[in-house]
Every structure is written in C-alpha cells, then in structure tokens.
C-alpha cells in the first residue's frame, strides 16, 4: 500500500486509493442507534494485528450518513514478489478466511461490555461479532459477490447448453490443491518418482469451478445432483421402454420394482465412494473427527476449555437432552399427528362432496375440488410455520457445535416433510387401495408440483424483485402508515433503540460517492439470503420418494425425474447467481444427515413395493385360496429377502475407494514415522545431556578404555575395547 496518491488517482471515479485495495468481500451494516464508541472499537479490533487479538483486515466505508455500511477487505500480505491474492486463494477461500477472522474476534479479560452500551456484556473469550448481532448493534452482515468471477462462472454454468464439458480458460483463480505429504526418499506422493501412488481421483472442472466460488457445501450438492441424475438414466430407460412396448403385465412390474430396490442401494453406496473421493481431494474427509468449535449462538456459562485453553460457553448436556426428548420430540409428534388429521379430513370432505354430487347433481359437483385446493394451501402453510417451529426448538435446545445443530434441525424437518408429502399416497395405496388413483396421484405430484417449484424458487422471486423495485418506496410508505400492517415494521425493543443518533462521522477512510462498490453492496443487501442447501436437498428427497416408494405402480417416475433434474441444474444455478445473496462458504465432507435419510427411504421403499404387490388384485388371482395370514407371511418373506440383499451390498461395497484408503493409511504411517523420529531425537538429546552432567566432557586427545560410553558431537557411542584388554 502506498501512503500517497497521484492527482489522477485522486480524481478517479473509484476514489483515492481504490486501485490499491481488492474488491469488497464482506459488508457490515450497523444500526443507526449504535454508539459511536462501539463502532470505533470494533473497527480498531478488525484492523488490529493478529498478535493483539485483531483480525488484521482493511476497512473502508461509503461517504458517511446515519446508518452506515462498512466494507471489510482482506489485506495482501505474506506474498512473494510478483504474486497477487488472486493467484493464491479462490473467491470461496477469501470469503471463508475473512469471515473466520471476523468471527475469531474475542473479548479480552479487561473488556466487560461493549463501549457505549453498558448493557451489552462481554465475557472473556466471547465472540464480539456474535454479541453485536445478538444486541442489534449490527443489523446485517453479508458477503459480496465478485462480479467478474461470477459473470464468467454464470456464462459457462447455467447459460451453457451443455455443462458437463470442461470450463476451459474461465479466468477464475485456480483451485489450490493440498500439497502431497513428503516421502522417505524426499519426493512427494504426486511426483514422477511415486507415480504409482498418485490418486486416480480427478473431479470434473464443473464441480471444481463451483467449489472455487461457492465453497464445498454448494459444490457437494451439485455433485450429488449430477450423480443422482446419471444414476436414474437406467431406471428411466427401462420405464420408457416399458411404455413404448406397452408392456403391462404383472411379471414386468414385479421385476422392475425388484430392480429399482436393488439399484437404489447400489446408487447410494457408489455415491459414498464418490463423496469420499471428493472430500479427500478437498481436504474435508476427516472433518467430522476434528475438534469442532462452538457455535456463535451457543449459550452457557463461560469456562476455560481444558483442550484449547480458551474461555468458552458451557451448557450441561443433560439439559440439552432433556429439552430434546421431553419437549421437542413430543412437539414434533403432535405436529405429525395434526398433519395426518388434516390429510384425512381433506379426503373425508372430498368423499362427502362426491356423494353429494351423486345425490344432488352437478350443482354440488362444482365444489368437488375445493378440499384438494384447500388441503394444498394448508400443506404449504403448515410447512412454512413448522420450519419456524423446528428452528426455534433447535435454537432452544442449545447444541454446542454447528454439525449437531444441523443434524437435529434437519431431522425434525425431514420427519414432518415425509409425513406431509407422502401421507396422502400411503392413504390411497393402503386404505383406499385404488392403484389407478395412486398412479395418477404420483404422476401429478411428480410432474406438476416440481414444475411449480421451479417457477416458485427461481423465476418468481426474480420477476417479483424486478417489478417491485420500481415502486418499492411507495409501497413501504403505505404499509408503514396503514393501521393493519404498521405493527409488522415495529422493531423489537432493545437498548440500542434508545441511543441518540450519532452526527459526527466515524474516523475511517471513505470511498468515493461514485464508487461502484457502494451500489453493489446496497443492491445485494436487498436480496433474500441463501441460508443453506436444505430446501434443495429436500426437493431431491421428495423426488427420491416418488421414484422408488411406488415404482411398482408407476415405472415412468424415473424418466420424469431425469427431465426435472436437468432443469433443476439450471434453475438452482440461476438462483444462486442472480436471485439470492452470495451464500457463506461452508466446509463439508459429505451430504450429512441426508445420506441417512435417503438410505432410510430406500428401506421404506422395500416395504411399500412388497406390500403393493401383495395387495394387487392381479397377484391375488394367482392364489385365490390363500388366506390373509399367508399373504402377510409372503410379504414378510419378500421384504426380508430384498433387505438381506441390500445389507449384503452395503457390506460388500467399501465406503471409500481403494486409492483413498491407501492414501489415508500412507499418511497415518508417515505421521507415526515422523513422531517416532522426533521422539528418538529427543531421547538422544536427553541421554547426551545426562551423561555430560554425570561424567563431564572428555579432555581433548584422551583415550577411554573398555566400553565406557563417550559423548561426542552431541551423541552417545560405545568405544570398542583395546587389544591389550583381551
């Protein structure tokens, strides 16, 4: 960084010194009532050196007004001459590093509260950013897109017709790969001397470019979506072949169902191996075994961690488990039962209207579809409020790590979503026992519902945002003044609301008023946040159920799923690049709890398909004399045989490829060898020091007889006996 600017730089539209700083990575928006001392203190901590507890980042602001936004940028440091930050870190890694530095700002022993806000207490080791967010001093904190890199990625991602080909010269920073460990011969595992040990995993450029910009979590989702779509091609081809050849016999349906049930196990086991290869290449394979930090929102009594030595919040585990099993589990059960009652009520009302139509004619028939429409609206409404309830319950349970929090939150949501989406199909299949109605319902929900989802999640928000931007100010004024909607805009009463507005500007360098960074920050702050990949995985989970739960009834489900997923790849990419804010980078080593959810759904699919075959009238005609007990025994036998085959496949197929296992074993061996060598060196140094302290150093030119150990050159050796001693 230079201390002065030329006249050209002073007059540039980007403002003085703008050419010397990298693009904006993070924006922090303070509440207009935040005390000036609190803002200055946080900026000092952000700009301070790491050894003094700071984040060592560069801060600039727009021309200051009340309610100011600050942009935080990382500083080009520790680089060799001729290097730039773009050559070292990807956009995802820069965002992750800056956020990590901000979240790592911890309160010191002497800092009891936030300056200017005595009610905002600070404990030693507590996250400063977390306190600012919890107290409302910071109203928003978001990462900013790298427009140049995003435009290049967009043009070769969702705008491209075929995205399986390599990206080519995209201009994105190269993805840094972990250096291979050194071998005993001094080479590396990836060198020509050890080419036989080189991993055979070569992730597609398509996945690597997504990871380089959005991080591992988003890249893992798109990798799973692509892998799952490719795996569906074979069932889709069989279903299409059955439709073209007009094959509709019992044997073909039974064989197709059996094939699907075995194929789903092969699919999930092969994905585990693919996932292991990806996470090993990304350096996140053993992330679940590493020591995880506490969540920023984790509450508890501040106690020094015996492992890290830091002061961290501590909460009794028995309290978390008590809340989980005594409150959260019953609440989820009540919601599930309520969803079932709503579904049964909708079917009952529809049956009543059908009976009325038979009795009173076409007048009552007008209202036949009202229960279905009302039930669809209730399903959406229950999903919306249940998601809020599940999040609130998981927050209240107070889990220590982010992985525990995500697991329990997703588990609650998956249970309810399963009941809400599939209960009507189970009701038709096993209570009404209408195969034609079940086939029609599966086709409708798979095709129509998912097409609506594409429009709702990607195109509708984009169109509404574009139209709403034209008259946003007038609408907000009318809503704030209207007595029915005014309460929706009232802020929660906090100490920060009672603070007077600061008139003096904060002493921090400002950007030029025409700087495009300011416009970009304001535009992206108005976008909806992209919280995580939960909704995307949920879509695949529901589709997975439609394809495999009732495959014996509707073999064409896989074909429509493939067409949907091809469109899904485009719409999900579009919404990430254009509709939502830039997501925060998250390091993951797998798809998490969704792997278990898909495997559980595969086991449920065995029971549903076996039951459908045993209840089929065409199957019953093969053995008309068989009793109900015999049919139940046949169902149990078929179900046990297929589940045994699935378990055998899971046991026979390793979760990790051979090259990953060998690489991990080699790293473990080299780590043990390095530890052994280090201990040997320490032992030799220790014995050498002890010998010198007991016997002293030998004089120059002296000869020692016998086998007395002699210290020489810092080592210990035994002198051979003299010839006269024999």
Automatic annotation (TrEMBL):
<keyword id="KW-0812">Transmembrane</keyword>
<feature type="region of interest" description="Disordered">
    <location>
        <begin position="1"/>
        <end position="23"/>
    </location>
</feature>
<keyword id="KW-0472">Membrane</keyword>
<feature type="compositionally biased region" description="Polar residues">
    <location>
        <begin position="701"/>
        <end position="711"/>
    </location>
</feature>
<feature type="compositionally biased region" description="Basic residues">
    <location>
        <begin position="716"/>
        <end position="726"/>
    </location>
</feature>
<feature type="transmembrane region" description="Helical">
    <location>
        <begin position="631"/>
        <end position="653"/>
    </location>
</feature>
<feature type="transmembrane region" description="Helical">
    <location>
        <begin position="253"/>
        <end position="271"/>
    </location>
</feature>
<dbReference type="InterPro" id="IPR049452">
    <property type="entry name" value="Anoctamin_TM"/>
</dbReference>
<feature type="compositionally biased region" description="Basic residues">
    <location>
        <begin position="681"/>
        <end position="693"/>
    </location>
</feature>
<dbReference type="Pfam" id="PF04547">
    <property type="entry name" value="Anoctamin"/>
</dbReference>
<feature type="domain" description="Anoctamin transmembrane">
    <location>
        <begin position="210"/>
        <end position="666"/>
    </location>
</feature>
<feature type="transmembrane region" description="Helical">
    <location>
        <begin position="324"/>
        <end position="348"/>
    </location>
</feature>
<feature type="compositionally biased region" description="Basic and acidic residues">
    <location>
        <begin position="194"/>
        <end position="204"/>
    </location>
</feature>
<feature type="transmembrane region" description="Helical">
    <location>
        <begin position="588"/>
        <end position="619"/>
    </location>
</feature>
<keyword id="KW-1133">Transmembrane helix</keyword>
<feature type="transmembrane region" description="Helical">
    <location>
        <begin position="360"/>
        <end position="381"/>
    </location>
</feature>
<feature type="transmembrane region" description="Helical">
    <location>
        <begin position="218"/>
        <end position="241"/>
    </location>
</feature>
<dbReference type="InterPro" id="IPR007632">
    <property type="entry name" value="Anoctamin"/>
</dbReference>
<dbReference type="GO" id="GO:0005886">
    <property type="term" value="C:plasma membrane"/>
</dbReference>
<dbReference type="GO" id="GO:0005254">
    <property type="term" value="F:chloride channel activity"/>
</dbReference>
<protein>
    <recommendedName>
        <fullName>Anoctamin</fullName>
    </recommendedName>
</protein>
<feature type="region of interest" description="Disordered">
    <location>
        <begin position="169"/>
        <end position="204"/>
    </location>
</feature>
<comment type="similarity">
    <text>Belongs to the anoctamin family.</text>
</comment>
<feature type="region of interest" description="Disordered">
    <location>
        <begin position="677"/>
        <end position="726"/>
    </location>
</feature>
<feature type="compositionally biased region" description="Acidic residues">
    <location>
        <begin position="1"/>
        <end position="12"/>
    </location>
</feature>
<feature type="transmembrane region" description="Helical">
    <location>
        <begin position="413"/>
        <end position="432"/>
    </location>
</feature>
<feature type="transmembrane region" description="Helical">
    <location>
        <begin position="544"/>
        <end position="567"/>
    </location>
</feature>
